[in-house]
Design brief:
This protein has eight helices and no strands. The chain is mainly α. It is elongated and about 95 Å long.
């Protein structure tokens, strides 16, 4: 009488497939991380102080301001909740107040003009953190705001009415 013995199948093909899957996932993960770092450097990278010129950002800012309507800027600041930090929070050291911002912006990051500095502050808020404040501004306004909205906000902040 013969007893059937279970056949022993080698497991190495299964281990090989699992190892290849893990290597593939790690490779894609590394590519994702590398691409994210490159994106951050491209979008939010700082222009070194020695590379700043009076013209930095101005081609873009001039285009935005050409169609801007400052009367919409105040409403947009409320809609995007900028006022929470730049009005109420200004008292607590969260963000600089809007009141008088045009004059301060003109001196804040030489040789940038007030308009160029405001553009940089909105689209790349980590490029320059004002001393005494925490740098808590959301990093995605460059993507969230349309060109029209961005121009309207900058135009409003350049007026004496900005508060």
């Amino acid at each position: 009488m013969s007893v059937l013995q279970p056949q022993h199948t080698p497991h190495w093909p299964l281990y090989l497939v699992a190892a290849l899957l893990i290597i593939t996932l790690l490779a894609f993960g590394a590519l994702f991380v590398a691409d994210s770092v490159n994106y951050q450097e491209t979008v939010h990278g700082d222009i070194p102080a020695e590379a700043l010129t009076e013209q930095s950002y101005m081609d873009r800012v001039d285009m935005l301001l050409a169609r801007a309507d400052p009367t919409r800027g105040d409403e947009l600041l409320a809609r995007f909740d900028c006022v929470a930090c730049h009005r109420a929070g200004a008292v607590n050291g969260v963000a600089p107040a809007f009141s008088g911002i045009a004059a301060r912006a003109a001196e804040r990051r030489p040789p940038l003009s007030a308009a160029a500095y405001l553009y940089e502050s909105i689209t790349r808020p980590q490029a320059h953190i004002v001393e005494g404040f925490v740098g808590a501004m959301p990093q995605d306004y460059a993507a969230r705001l349309t060109d029209q909205q961005l121009g309207d906000i900058i135009a409003y902040l350049l007026t004496a009415d900005a508060h």
